């Protein structure tokens, strides 16, 4: 008889433990509710953009609120307001990113909501190594603005056609980090490596490319 009771006792014990992990009644109602405007895609029109957040309900006293972009608080946005707006007067690719409206409460955890501002990549800088000779190492890089962060691709012109460069080629090493890419060429071969290179940045909104000019045959510029 005792053997048949053990499973029931064990099941009851597990039920009690599981029940203690469930939130109490009304827990969800105590969470702050934030209503936001929709995501924004920056085009070429340069029309002003206004981001909006509204703290529609909270059981806690609001202390202050502010805006952040990519985790950094935006200057002069801190105030004590449940209804928040942030205006981008002339939106460009460098204004894209993750915007958060952040609310701080008295004696309660802060709350925030996210609005994504998206834009096609815009390559803002690139550089190639200069005065490199046979057997040395060379480095080229590109950096961009735009959001989401792009997928990067390097290509080299071979017989009039651009061919993709990969990390599997032995002497070429590519490092990608968000809005930055780097192409390292080890042990330069003067007969093979000079030429025209392209870095391409592509995200869900669009793409951009820059090219380097061919260098001298005895150097890699």
Automatic annotation (TrEMBL):
Residues 32-118, 121-211 form the Ig-like domain. Residues 1-28 form the signal peptide. Keywords: Immunoglobulin domain, Signal. SMART domains: IG, IGc2. The keyword Metal-binding does not apply. InterPro entries: Ig-like_dom, Ig-like_dom_sf, Ig-like_fold, Ig_I-set, Ig_sub, Ig_sub2. This is Neuroplastin-like. It comes from Mesocricetus auratus. The gene is LOC121133595.
């Amino acid at each position: 008889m005792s053997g048949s009771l053990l499973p029931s006792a064990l099941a009851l014990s597990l039920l009690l433990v599981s029940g203690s992990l469930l939130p109490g009644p009304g827990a969800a109602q105590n969470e702050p509710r934030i209503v936001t405007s929709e995501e924004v895609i920056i085009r070429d029109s340069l029309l002003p953009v206004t981001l909006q957040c509204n703290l529609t309900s909270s059981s806690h006293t609001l202390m202050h609120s502010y805006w952040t972009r990519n985790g950094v608080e935006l200057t002069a946005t801190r105030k004590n307001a449940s209804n928040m707006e942030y205006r981008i007067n002339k939106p460009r690719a460098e204004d894209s990113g993750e915007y958060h409206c952040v609310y701080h409460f008295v004696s309660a955890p802060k709350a925030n909501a996210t609005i994504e501002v998206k834009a096609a990549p815009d390559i803002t800088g690139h550089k190639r190594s200069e005065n490199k000779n046979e057997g040395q190492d060379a480095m080229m890089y590109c950096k961009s603005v735009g959001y989401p962060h792009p997928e990067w691709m390097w290509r080299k012109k071979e017989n009039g056609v651009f061919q993709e460069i990969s990390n599997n080629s032995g002497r070429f090493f590519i490092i990608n980090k968000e809005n930055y890419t780097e192409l390292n060429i080890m042990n330069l071969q003067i007969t093979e490596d000079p030429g025209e290179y392209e870095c391409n940045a592509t995200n869900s909104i669009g793409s951009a490319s820059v090219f380097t000019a061919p260098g001298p045959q005895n150097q890699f510029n």
